[in-house]
Amino acid sequence: MLEPSSTYLPADETNEPLEDAPSASLSINEAIDSVGYGPFQIFMFILTGAWLCADGMELSLLAFLMPELSKQWPEQDGAFWKPMTSSVTFVGVFIGSFLWGRISDRYGRRLANLGTNLVIGSFGLLTAFAPNFAFVALARFCAGLGMGGTTVAFALYVEHLPIKRRGSYLVLFSFWWTLGIVIQSFLAALYLADSSPDSWRHMVAVSALPFFILAAAYRWIPESPHWLALNGHKQEAAYSLRWMAAVNGKSLPHSFSLRDSAPGSNTMPKLKESLETLFGPSLRLVTILLLAMWFAMNLSYYGAVLFTPEYFRVGTTGGSSEFWSIVLISFGELPGMFLSAFLVEKIGRRGVQYSFMSIVGVSMLFLLFLSPQKNGTFTTALLLLSRSGMSGGYAATWSYTSEVFPTTVRATGLGMANSVAKTASVMSPWIATTLLSISPRIPISIFSALSFAAAVAAFFLPVETTARELAATVDQIPRNQGSYEQAMERLVSEDDITDPDDTDDLEPQTS
Fold first, then answer.
1. CA 290, CA 483: separation in Å to the nearest integer?
2. SS3 for 29?
């Protein structure tokens, strides 16, 4: 179907030079907006979404794997190795998030895509041949290093999206991760219902296979035009945009050039420069608030996921019914995610984040006064409302973080946020299980307080990304434009933001 023809481009793209004396000048954002949302973006939604889905499968695998390993090696200290294996996996994700973010910003999104899939697939498959707990822990740590790179999927997808309804598309993109959890639950019900001592090995091996398929699909993944243009590969970026337009049935000006996204700089910053950008005057408050939100939301989310099966007992314990219960609970995320996708373009990214997390905090507060034995219906409703609010708020945070950081540090910023999030994830098993054994009110109070803290942080975010172009450098980050009303005023007043169906009439700037 498509044959690679360059380091950065997949597919049927010739290396013929652009016409001499270009008569039009477009920015990357203008070109993508003129192409609009179409089959090309749907293709990217599926390809990068499958990457996120496979990550959801691999990370949720831990919940089903740990009890099986205790049965496999009863002579080993499962009380030590089970939490240790989960913790070292998240430590791997913590390191990998930052590592792959840097690789992606310096060497491209495609290379990071290939590397993460090969690392996760290889060590995921190696887990199936583990002779003991220690080997599993080491293999999961290495697989976690690869899983840290899935933040690049968000960067690659957002950098191919037009401004109009970008937030909704990004929130819906998070659906893939939830789908991965559901698929893994089905696999667990299928394989672990078998009493065979090696059934867990078969499940682990099957869970690793999607990453090798995704690695093979590397040839069809285009490089981000934002990254290409910013790194001096303007011709490749122009070819990529022409290919995108052709797939969408649109057309760009017959002869055009790309304006500099970052005048005076065609290279990505080094680590020190990236940190100075993220914590510099323009982004310091955004970065600190986002890191606090990612920490609080991850600790609440993963803590609630681990806490719910113990506190809210659906079905019977043991056998496949336990796994089907988790499937049902996982589906509780979908309503919040779809509602979030609708509201991010109505009340803004910040509005969705602080309203949804406030709902989670209130729901958790009510749980303090209920008992699942005496108030089963209300407890069920509140837990599902909390899970739905968490998924919707978290998806909006993914969207906002992908948009607010400039191209020069986008993947690095996402990786740093994910690293902080996974630090919280390491703590979540101890809060959800150890403190639960003392009193259910302790973890519930912690989850409620963290949810309110995330809501407050979202309220004070100084920039609203609704209807805003993706910035290439920190100099393009708007200041004092944090309200949703101001964002919508820009959406209405800017002539270059039009309906995708009307973008053929877009007039580029002539040179």
1. 17
2. helix
Reduced to 3 states, what is the DSSP secondary structure of residue 206? helix
The predicted structure's pLDDT at residue 126: 95
Phi, psi of 25 (to 5 degrees): -130, 125
d(CA 77, CA 69): 11
pLDDT digits (tens, 9 = 90+) for 10-28: 444 444 443 443 456 778 8
Distance CA 457, CA 461 (A): 7
Q: Which helix (H) or strand (E) holds 258?
A: strand 257-258
Residue in the structure block whose two tokens are 């016409």: 19
Q: Which of 96-110, 141-155, 189-203 has the lowest mean pLDDT?
A: 189-203
Q: Please, are residues 271 and 105 in contact by the beta-carbon 8 Å criterion?
A: no
Exposed/middle/buried for 165, CB within 10 Å: 0-12, 13-18, 19+?
middle
CA–CA distance, 287 with 280 (Å, rounded to integer): 9
Burial (Cβ within 10 Å: 0-12, 13-18, ≥19) of residue 314? middle
CA angle 89, 93, 99 (to 5 degrees): 140
CA-based torsion, 101, 104, 110, 111: positive or negative: negative
149 with 422: CB under 8 angstroms? Answer: no
Q: Does position 2 have pLDDT exceeding 50, yes or no?
A: no
Largest distance between two CA atoms of the chain: 77
Determine the residue type at 481. Q
pLDDT digits (tens, 9 = 90+) for 179-206: 888 888 888 878 877 777 888 899 999 9
Tell me how far apart the alpha carbons of residues 21 and 266 are, in angstroms, rounded to a whole number: 22
For the four alpha carbons of 75, 80, 86 and 90, in that order, the dihedral sign comes to negative
What the block records as the tokens of 369 is 């006064």
8 A C-beta contact, residue 278 and residue 409: yes
The dihedrals phi and psi of 36, each to the nearest 5 degrees, come to: 75, -175
Give the Cα separation of 82 and 279 in Å (integer).
37
Over range 368-387, report the average pLDDT: 73
The pLDDT of residue 293: 95
Average pLDDT (120-139) is 93
Amino acid at 349: R
Per the structure block, which two tokens stand in for 63? 């919940």
Measured CA distances, 268 to 262, 304, 409, 410 (Å): 11, 39, 8, 11
Please state, in angstroms and rounded to a whole number, the distance separating the CA atoms of residues 313 and 268: 51
Its pTM stands at: 0.72
Q: What integer pLDDT is reported at residue 291 of this predicted model?
A: 94
For 205-221, what is each residue's pLDDT tens digit? 999 999 999 999 988 88
Residue identified by tokens 């997390």 is 357
Q: Give the number of other Cβ atoms within 10 Å of residue 216's Cβ.
A: 11
Q: Which helix (H) or strand (E) holds 257?
A: strand 257-258
- The secondary element (H helix, E strand) that includes residue 510 is strand 509-510
Task: Report the pLDDT value the prediction gives residue 375, as an integer from 0 to 100.
Answer: 58
